[in-house]
Specification:
Elements: H1 4-7, H2 10-33, H3 40-52, H4 58-65, H5 69-81, E1 85-89, E2 97-101, H6 103-127, H7 129-147
Antiparallel strand pairs: 1-2
Helix pairs in contact: 3-5, 3-6, 4-5, 6-7
């Protein structure tokens, strides 16, 4: 008889199957609702910069979003081209740059948020606020487990 650990715990498989499918469906739905030309990655970076109200280096942004520096550089370039971010040199270290959200970027982020908020609100309302509140700690614990380098099996 096969060891259940070799084939995976059915509860874990069911949980992550639901998480992965919900993620895929949510991303697809939100991407359709975003203003023309804006991608989910663009919104995410604009939202982060607007919420924190601070400048970040490309490396800091890449780390925050768990993407490569190259991927973040691409996103930042597209945001700069659209006029949504300002890039300035670090006055103390010319090799480093700082990224800040522009007024146009804040406006674009606010428009995007207005477009996706009803979708997010509907999902929470349909599931029930109490159910969502009860699952958030579990999801946070799972996220922290994956975010902790010490818990990696690599």
């Amino acid at each position: 008889m096969a060891d259940p650990k070799e084939t995976g715990d059915p509860l874990a498989i069911a949980l992550f199957s639901e998480i992965f499918m919900a993620d895929q469906l949510a991303r697809a739905r939100l991407a359709k609702a975003l203003p023309k030309g804006m991608e989910l990655s663009h919104f995410s970076v604009l939202n982060h910069l607007a919420r924190t109200n601070t400048e970040r280096t490309p490396a800091q942004l890449a780390k925050a979003f768990h993407v490569t520096r190259g991927a973040m550089t691409n996103t930042i370039s597209r945001l700069e081209w659209a006029g949504y971010v300002h890039i300035r040199p670090d006055w103390d270290d010319a090799r480093r740059k700082f990224i800040g959200v522009s007024a146009a970027g804040r406006k674009a982020r606010d428009e995007a948020l207005a477009a996706i908020a009803p979708i997010l609100d509907d999902a929470v309302n349909n599931a029930g606020a109490e159910k969502v509140r009860s699952i958030l700690p579990v999801l946070r614990d799972i996220r922290r487990r994956f975010d902790d380098p010490a818990s990696s099996d690599e």
